[in-house]
Structure formats: structure tokens, C-alpha cells
Amino acid sequence: MAAGVCGPTPLVFRLHEGAPELVREVLLERGWEEYDEQEQEEGDWNLYWRTSAFHNSDYENILPWQRLNHHPKTVGITRKDCLARNLKRMRGTFGSGLYNFSPTTFILPNDYTRFLAEYTKHRLKNGGRSGYWICKPVDLSRGRGIFIFEDIRDLVYDSSVIVQRYISNPLLISGYKFDLRIYVCVKSFQPLTIYMHQEGLVRFATEKYNLSSLDNLYSHLTNTSINKFGPFYTTDKERVGQGCKWTMSKFRCFLHSQGINELFLWQKINNIVTLTLLTIAPSVPSSPNSVELFGFDILIDAKYKPWLLEVNYSPALTIDCQVDVTVKKVLLNDLVDLMNYKSMDSVRQRGYLKQKYKRPCYLGSQSLQSPVLLLPKSMCEHHPANKKSHSIHSTFSDSMRYFPSVEINRIRSARNSVAGNRKTRPVLSQMTEAIQWSEVTDVESEFDDRDLSSLVSPWQASRQPAGGCCKLPAIHIQKTPKFPWDPKSQDKSTPPLRVGDFILTFPFNEVTLKASWDKLNVKTAVHEVHKLISQLASQLASGCSHKQKRGREDELDRCKEKKDFGSLFWGPTNPPLLSECHLGKGYVGTS
Ligand code: ADP
């Protein structure tokens, strides 16, 4: 086969049982192929996606071209009781003034006596009324097992639960309660690198909020898994519309229409996300090939204070309505972009051999001294290359290390759109040829950075402003995002400020950048967040929105000039007017 014809093999994804269908759909659209356990060798994949946790061995055996969709040991924030415990610890260390974004929580049965004391205190103070409480099983999700109560005699539980102060004055839209699902990607825990997605979901209860019917879950819980079975799900509800979801863009338009300075709200949410992740960051083992998508659930009260309700491990990527399609497809594409695949990752075995990675890479009994050839199982034994592996090893040139970082998956996708989808995996003869160094170089030069600018992948081309009209304006676009893939490398450059709609929220200045390298300095990071909150508070107190806006723009300009961080304040700099938002009927998707 002529040099360059074969090209790099497509990137390969591996889905564990129960992984969201949308992941498959998005990756296939990008030109990836699905891993076939029967046909392919163990390590012949680039992304392994699981809804549940990986085993330790998955982290230990990771190969350089592979990524996993979870970091190890993040349960400290994703289980309700662990989150409560960790936030309490941080309150003890840094004060309740800063860690004041989570409702008072007790873990039962252990904290029962303390809960009783608090309950009684409130009753005495409020003329016999204790206020409202919510009880949630610690390890369930999707609203299962949750109930709200006022009278302690209604508190009945038979498993470990948390009892939390119920935020009884939520912000309502036309009488409907809602919460926000914020998507957060932790690109790395060491150094701590956090991105927040500009889009997200607003999830509504489908019956009007009413404190005199605490057992009406359609009025008090905002989980889609509950509300989609409610009697009013398909009804065209005042302002909310049909269904139970809005895009975040639509919500921003709504806030704008109400004259709310949403930037402060977003910044407060940023801070909540950062402070929460700081609780576990030092204890998460380094796993450079992992990326994690968390779903932060935030409730806003009538005074516009955001509260953290919980952090979701594997946030739902199911599609219930058009809003889900709009938000989650873009989200997943941006997530894959953040995973930073390089050309070399698509030439799995060749890249591995050439890179001579120092990290232990286990693949059965093979080691770097006996090069690994990831061929289809059925062909492996007869493959001539296996017999002369040492000579193959020596055909690689050192220059192979310096492959340009190319978004190969998008390129592949774009190429497929021109040449038609090539579904079949390369046959043995192609793979034999592909292992020759000369071809690798040809392939690489075929897809250099210049090619990128002229190719637009199908998903990118079809990418719509979420919600159809409320385009979130770009704040910063770094043309060629550069991110140190290996956190142990000497290259301590700034992570890209923006990847798709993911905006860098930590580190957010030079101090936090330095604090995040080597051993994370939590104290310094928390101190910087504190400073930020104080600045915000004083700006709020000054109460001049125009000046604030101007100040923020100046800040961004300064950031640009200094090539400093611009993600301090994120959110639309110039949100569209309400008249441009088509808030009316038909805007909210339904299933
Ligand atoms: P789950 O993991 O089961 O979804 P959540 O903690 O997210 O549990 O709670 C489910 C829903 O209950 C939330 O989406 C929100 O509408 C409501 N909720 C939970 N905690 C509170 C609270 N402290 N105050 C008010 N509403 C709450």
C-alpha cells in the first residue's frame, strides 16, 4: 500500500454496560469506532467510558493513548454523607463564612442527637415550629426515597440518610421551583484544573410550589426522573412551557429580562464548585489520563443565594427532550475535545513503542523490551511483525516524539464527511504497513495544523447556539489551546482558558496556578477564593451595575493584555435582550 493511504486508525471507544447511548452516538459521529472485545486486543482503545467506578487495575494498566472518564476516589463529594462530612471539615478549618453554601446537614443515625438538639432549638425560637427538613438516602439518586417533613415524628428511615435543612424559599418562575444542573469537568486533580460548561440545564418541578403539600413530589422535587411522570409534564405551563427543562442560556435571558446581574450569580456558583472540589483535591491520586464530568446541583433561593444540593457522579446523559439534545451533545463533544487526543493516540501501538514511556504499562507479560502489537486477536499469532519485533522497534525515529497535537478525532470526522463513512477497521495488511515509520510520518504530515483550519467537522458545523437563539458570546478564545498533558512535565503553562463551551474556572490567577502545581496548596487556593468573594461583595455593595460591568470589561481587557486569566468572571458579557429570546411557547423541549 502506498505511503499515507492507510492513514491513522480511527480512535476507538469502549463502553461499559449501561454507558449512555449518547456517548456512542457522539463518538460515532466524530468518526470513532467502537471497541470489539472479541476482535481486538485489550489495550486497543482510546477511551473507556463507565457509568460506575473503575477498578484500581484499570488505572494501573492504563496505556499512554488511553483515557478514562473517571478519576479515582471522588466519592468524597459524590456521596451525600461524604460530601456533608467533607464540607463540615472545611468549615472547621476555613470558617463557616466561606463554606456557607450547603444547607445544614446531619448524617443519620450517627448525628441523631445533634439533629434533635438543632430541631428543638428551632422550635423554641420559632414558637413551636421547627422549619422544614428534607430526608435523603445517602447512596440513592434521582429523587428516590426523598421526603420532606416538618414534624420529627414523620422522620422514618431504615437506611443511612442525611437530614438537611429544606430551602423553603426557593426562587420561583411563575410559581414553579427549579434547580440548576451545572456541568463541571475536572481535567486533572494534580494540578487541579477545573472547567465549567457555559451551558447546562434548568430543571423544573411540574406543579406549583406549595408548602402546604409537602408530600407532593411534583411540587418540591426538580428531578426529571420524577417530573416526567407528573400529570402536568406535557401541559404548557405558564412561562415555563411544556416539559420540565430549560437550557441555561434561556435562564440567563430570563434573569436578564428581570434586571438581575447574573454575572455575580455565576461567580458565586464558580466559587461553590471550586471550594467543593478543594475538599477532595489533595486526596485524589494522580491519574493524568482521567477526566471527570460532574453534575453540580444548585438551588437558588429567593434572595439569589445559590445553594449546593449535591454533586453527581456520572450525571445523566439520557435524552428526554430537545433541550437535552441541545445541551448534552455539545457538552460531550466539548468533553472529548478537553481530553486532548493527539495524532499519536490514534496509532496506538506505534505511538506506544516510539514514545518509550517511562510509566509502567502492563499488558500481560509483555513489556517495553518486547514491543506490544495490538492486532486483532485472531490475527495476532500469525502476524509477521510479531516475529521481528526488535527490528520494528529500531525503525522508529526519535522525532516521532514530537508529533504535533492535532485534534485527530475531528479531522477524521471531517474527512469521513467527504469520503463517506469508513466503518471497517483496517485489515491486517494495512496494519502491517501502518507500522512502518515512513507511513507514520506521511500520515502526520497529511493532517497537520493547517488542515485543521480548512476542515469543519460535521458536529461543529451543525452546532447551534443552545436554545436556538441565546448564543452565549465568546469571552476568550485561545486559537491553539495548549495544555500540558503530563502534569509532571516541566511545562507549567497555563491551561487553555476555553475549550468549546468549557471555561477554565480554576486556576483563575497566577497565585492559584502556582498553588496548584506540585502539592496543591489548599490554604492558598481557599484564600484566593475568599479574596474574590470579598471583592464581589464590595462591588455589590457599591451597587452601581454600570460601573461594575465596565470594571469587569476593563478587567478582561487587562487580562488579555497580560495574557493572564480571563475566566475570573464568566458568563455572557452582552446577553441578548428578552425580545431576542423567544421565551414563548415551543421553546422548551418536550419528549
Ligand atoms: P437526588 O440525588 O436523589 O437527585 P438531590 O439532593 O439532588 O437528590 O435532591 C433531589 C431534589 O430535591 C433536588 O433536585 C431539589 O429539587 C430537592 N432538594 C434537595 N435538597 C433540597 C434542599 N435542601 N432544599 C430544597 N430542595 C431540595
Description:
Strands 9, 10, 11, 12, 13, 14, 15 and 16 form an eight-stranded antiparallel β-sheet that branches. Strands 2-1-3-4 form a four-stranded parallel β-sheet, with helices on one face. It has a four-stranded antiparallel β-sheet with strand order 5-8-6-7, with helices on both faces. Among the domains are: 12-67, no CATH class; 75-103 and 172-344 and 496-540, ATP-grasp fold, B domain (D-amino Acid Aminotransferase, Chain A, domain 1); 104-166, no CATH class. It has helices at 21-29, 56-60, 75-78, 80-94, 112-125, 217-220, 224-227, 248-257, 262-280, 322-338, 343-346, 348-355, 377-380, 384-387, 389-395, 408-419, 428-434, 437-446, 449-454, 458-461, 510-516, 522-542, 545-562, and strands at residues 12-15, 33-34, 47-49, 67-68, 105-108, 133-137, 147-149, 161-165, 172-173, 176-189, 192-204, 245-247, 292-300, 306-313, 498-499, 502-506. 36% of the residues lie in helices and 14% in strands. α2 (56-60) links the parallel β3 and β4. The relative contact order is 0.15. Mean pLDDT is 75; it is low at 1-6, 353-462, 464-487, 544-548 and 555-591. α9 (262-280) packs antiparallel against α22 (522-542) and α21 (510-516) packs antiparallel against α22. It has 23 helices and 16 strands. With 591 residues, it is an alpha+beta fold. It binds adenosine-5'-diphosphate. Residues 103, 134, 136, 140-144, 146, 164, 166-167, 179, 221-223, 297, 299, 309-310 line the site of adenosine-5'-diphosphate. One of its GO terms (molecular function) is tubulin-glutamic acid ligase activity. One of its GO terms (biological process) is microtubule cytoskeleton organization. Keywords: ATP-binding, Ligase, Nucleotide-binding.
